């Protein structure tokens, strides 16, 4: 097994108290010291008050997932202690003034969680309070570190002569600083991160003092040393990578209606919508995208479609309920061969479901969205680099095949971030390709029949043309004549056949590990991440294994997938859904079914440890189907 640093850090607290900010500060400092990170954010679907927490993996090697066990749990209030103490295997940092807090007084803590905590504490004879939790951990040999947050905040308030309301925000920075001290890294990295994050001088003073105090409380337990960074590294998340891919891909209009977690993408494009770009003569010119917030998702998709008819590269971004509203518009785009891109951020359903949690339960909905048969290209990204490349590629594919392209990104990818080496972020080969364009003519046929199903496209306003939601002839005029219907229907469907011939199947999948092994893990989307991190652990146990990731579900790479899966002794489908929809699509296209399943549908990210333990159980013959339920 590879010896490597891998430390799991978690900070939690009520939403609105700076949990995200403190996690970003900690991650920034870790990255500055030369370590890789992968961070995952979990939060309730309310604005303020409910429990929010951030899990961060620290490693000296590129890392892509989180783990079950917590090495450092940083808390500054009671609920986080109750929520996460059962996962702590390293150190708990807590507020000494909270020791008397009772479980029964946790107003926001759900009854199911209270019941579980009560059973654990009562079983071991401990009182139902923070003190009971501390006794439970101490008895298990887990060290706890008491921090008098109130005393230090008062001290800082007197030193900087600011109100307690302003200084109180430094509580979570103290928790971060204690954590940083346990790692053993030089405080200069954390102070540098503070200077970078907080631009106002008074905030820099407050948080710099919090850093000094927090680090002084502890001795190093992990002994991490600064690592040399070769080249440049970038911190990225899914929302921003999708936005950057679109901007670089020549996006001119982005529409949206606010919805979690899709809105962040549009916000980023709006904040960075003007940039300098080189043309073929290497002359710089200003370019950018217009971002429109619409009154609803119906207007969002229809406005984006309208823009594509004028020649603008246009897209919209949404999540489950919004995508449901877009279905009719996407069907109109299919009928009228409009090259619109829909970025679909998947979360838990049905209905409003889990607005701020993740899932892979909408795959078949995306593949079959809209009534009737028409070509839809479906891309599913598996990591942050893929999100960027796929966002760029989606715009090209939409215009090449003149059809809707749906880009699937799960909430897990959208709201997690990672550190990547800039050398892996290679956008130089990317080229904008606009497909079959023409200036039109007096006798222009917008839907002219062709062998590949793709008609020369002129932009609205350049010549006479017609669009309608009804079946139409080559000029776009409504026609229900039987031969026209037959030929026009076939023309549209031919485009998917053309795409299937032109897009190499090997570019629609990824293979990791040993493709010739008797055991193959079959997965897609963000489920790829914990599998990749678990592969070395699995191999170390003497299990020869490969992994097949499906990147494009329509057109489906049936021939290559069939060759990779046929004659396998074990095929283990790993998905964040009950039905294993990705595996179902594989079976529909190849007639090959998985032999085993690892499934999770509670809205939380699959962890590396869950994959490792599940594969071990399956290979021991203990079960055919492992259902995961980790996380809080």
Explained architecture:
The chain is α/β, with parallel strands linked by helices and 632 residues long. It has four domains: 6-216, Pyruvate-ferredoxin Oxidoreductase, domain 3 (3-Layer(aba) Sandwich); 236-424, Thiamin diphosphate (ThDP)-binding fold, Pyr/PP domains (Rossmann fold, 3-Layer(aba) Sandwich), CATH 3.40.50; 436-503, no CATH class; 509-628, Rossmann fold (3-Layer(aba) Sandwich). It is 38% helix and 20% strand. The chain is built from 21 helices and 23 strands. The strands form four sheets. The chain has an eight-stranded mixed sheet. It has a seven-stranded mixed sheet with strand order 11-8-12-13-15-14-20, with helices on both faces. Strands 17-19-18-21-22-23 form a six-stranded mixed sheet, sandwiched between helices. Helix 1 (19-32) runs parallel beside helix 7 and helix 10 (238-248) packs parallel to helix 15 (384-401). It is globular. The mean pLDDT is 95.
Keywords:
21 helices; globular; 4 domains; 632 residues; Rossmann fold; Pyruvate-ferredoxin Oxidoreductase, domain 3; eight-stranded mixed sheet; seven-stranded mixed sheet; alpha/beta
- Overall geometry: globular
Q: Number of helical runs? A: 21
Q: What portion of residues is helical?
A: 25-40%
CATH architecture of the largest domain: 3-Layer(aba) Sandwich
Strand order of the largest sheet: 6-5-4-1-3-2-16-7
Q: Supply the CATH superfamily name of the largest domain.
A: Pyruvate-ferredoxin oxidoreductase, PFOR, domain III
Sheet of most strands: 8 strands, mixed
Average pLDDT over all residues: 95
CATH class of the largest domain: Alpha Beta
Q: Kindly estimate the percentage of residues that lie in beta strands according to DSSP.
A: 15-25%
Which structural category fits the helices and strands?
alpha/beta
Write down the domain tally: 4
CATH topology type of the largest domain: Pyruvate-ferredoxin Oxidoreductase, domain 3
Unreliable spans:
none
What's the N-to-C terminus distance?
Answer: 30 Å
Cα-atom radius of gyration: 27 Å
Q: What's the total number of strands?
A: 23
């Amino acid at each position: 097994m590879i010896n490597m640093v891998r430390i799991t850090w978690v900070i939690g607290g009520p939403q609105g108290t700076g949990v995200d900010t403190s996690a970003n500060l900690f991650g920034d400092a870790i990255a500055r010291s030369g370590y890789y990170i992968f961070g995952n954010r979990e939060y309730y679907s309310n604005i303020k008050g409910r429990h929010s927490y951030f899990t961060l993996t620290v490693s000296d090697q590129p890392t892509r997932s989180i783990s079950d066990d917590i090495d450092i749990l940083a808390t500054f209030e009671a609920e986080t202690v109750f929520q996460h103490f059962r996962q702590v295997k390293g150190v708990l940092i807590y507020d000494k003034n909270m020791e008397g807090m009772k479980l029964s007084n946790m107003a926001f803590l759900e009854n199911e969680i209270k019941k579980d905590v009560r059973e654990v504490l009562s079983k071991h004879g401990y009182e139902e309070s923070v003190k009971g939790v501390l006794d439970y951990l101490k008895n298990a040999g887990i060290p706890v570190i008491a921090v008098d947050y109130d005393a230090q905040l008062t001290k800082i308030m007197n030193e900087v002569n600011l109100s307690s309301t302003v200084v109180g925000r430094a509580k979570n920075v103290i928790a971060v600083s204690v954590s940083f001290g346990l790692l053993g890294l030089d405080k200069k990295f954390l102070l540098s991160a503070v200077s970078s994050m907080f631009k106002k001088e008074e905030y820099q003073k407050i948080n710099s003092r919090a850093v000094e105090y927090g680090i002084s409380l502890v001795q190093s337990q992990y002994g991490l040393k600064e690592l040399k960074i070769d080249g440049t590294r970038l911190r990225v998340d899914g929302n921003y990578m999708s936005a950057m891919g679109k901007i670089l891909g020549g996006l001119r209009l982005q529409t949206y209606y606010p919805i979690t977690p899709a809105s962040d993408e549009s916000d980023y494009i709006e904040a960075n919508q003007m940039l300098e770009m080189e043309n073929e003569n290497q002359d710089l010119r200003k370019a950018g995208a217009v971002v429109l917030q619409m009154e609803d998702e119906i207007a969002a998709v229809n406005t984006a479609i309208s823009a594509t008819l004028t020649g603008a590269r246009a897209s919209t971004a949404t999540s489950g309920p919004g995508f449901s509203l877009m279905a009719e518009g996407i069907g109109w785009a299919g009928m009228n061969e409009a090259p619109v891109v829909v970025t679909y951020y998947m979360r838990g359903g049905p209905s409003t479901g889990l607005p701020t949690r993740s899932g892979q339960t909408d795959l078949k909905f995306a593949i079959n969205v809209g009534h009737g048969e028409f070509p839809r290209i479906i891309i599913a990204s598996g990591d942050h680099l893929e999100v960027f490349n796929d966002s760029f590629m989606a715009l090209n594919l939409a215009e090449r095949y003149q059809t809707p392209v749906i880009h699937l990104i799960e909430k897990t990818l959208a709201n997690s971030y990672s550190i990547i080496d800039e050398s892996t972020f290679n956008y130089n080969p990317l080229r904008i390709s606009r497909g079959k364009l023409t200036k039109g003519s007096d006798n222009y046929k917008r839907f002219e029949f062709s062998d590949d199903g793709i008609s020369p496209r002129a932009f609205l306003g350049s010549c006479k043309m017609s669009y309608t939601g009804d079946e139409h002839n080559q000029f776009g005029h409504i026609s229900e004549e039987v031969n026209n219907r037959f030929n026009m229907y076939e023309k549209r469907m031919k485009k998917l056949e053309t795409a299937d011939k032109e897009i190499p199947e090997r570019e629609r999948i990824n293979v990791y590990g040993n493709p010739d092994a008797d055991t193959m893990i079959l997965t897609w989307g963000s489920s790829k991440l914990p599998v990749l991190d678990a592969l070395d652990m699995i191999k170390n146990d003497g299990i020869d294994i490969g992994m097949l990731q499906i990147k494009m579900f329509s057109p489906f790479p049936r021939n290559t997938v069939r060759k990779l899966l046929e004659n396998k002794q074990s095929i283990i489908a790993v998905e964040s859904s009950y039905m294993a929809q990705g595996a179902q699509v594989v079976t529909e296209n190849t007639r090959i079914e998985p032999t085993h399943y690892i499934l999770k549908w509670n809205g939380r990210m699959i962890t590396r440890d869950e994959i490792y333990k599940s594969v071990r159980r399956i290979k021991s013959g203990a079960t055919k189907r492992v259902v995961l339920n980790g996380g809080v």
